[in-house]
Amino acid sequence: MKNQLDLLEKIYALAQTGIKYTRNPFDLDRYQTLLAIATDEYSQLTGLDTEILRERFNNDLGYATPKFGVNGALFNAEGKILLEHRTDDNLWGLPGGWVDVGEDPVSALKREFVEEASLVVEPVELINFYTRLPGPFAQPHTSVHALYFCRYISGNITKSIESFDIDYFDPATITAWHKDHGELARQAVGYFKKPPLNLPR
Questions:
Q1: Which helix (H) or strand (E) element contains residue 112?
Q2: Are residues 55 and 127 in the same domain?
Q3: Which residue of 28, 44, 124, 196 sits 20 to 30 Å from the alpha carbon of 3, by its own alpha carbon?
């Protein structure tokens, strides 16, 4: 299945770029046909709705590049991490989302914390980059994500329409994770618990 998804992503990227830049109406028809074929095959392989995939792909026309997302790890004084029970898939994850056009990753993460938790935070250090390839979690495209360690600045936790619940939790008590967020939480906890570096002066 992975090889099929890799091939479909290449076909999708070719069609996406071609539709954006071609000036030949016959080539445009060919690229649109390729995109339709890729969409139908994606739907069969991943179980995602064809119309949802078609809308997603049409919104991404242009030179094909991976999508970029950000997530933040915010801990309280007890060492618990801020997690949200998401309304979109009924699973648990770290606050975060996609970086918008014209936005840098740090600004995007600050915005996401305000939108999802009504909290002002400062991303202070990059914990890790990670990549999601087509296939896992029924994802039809490659995406790159940055996980930041964040410092609390101000605000009181208030859930948004994106969450059933949002608060500080021990990640060991969570079993139903959104995509790979369980691993992200474990990485964040490891970072939080690591001893400070004693550098020579």
A1: helix 105-117
A2: no
A3: 28
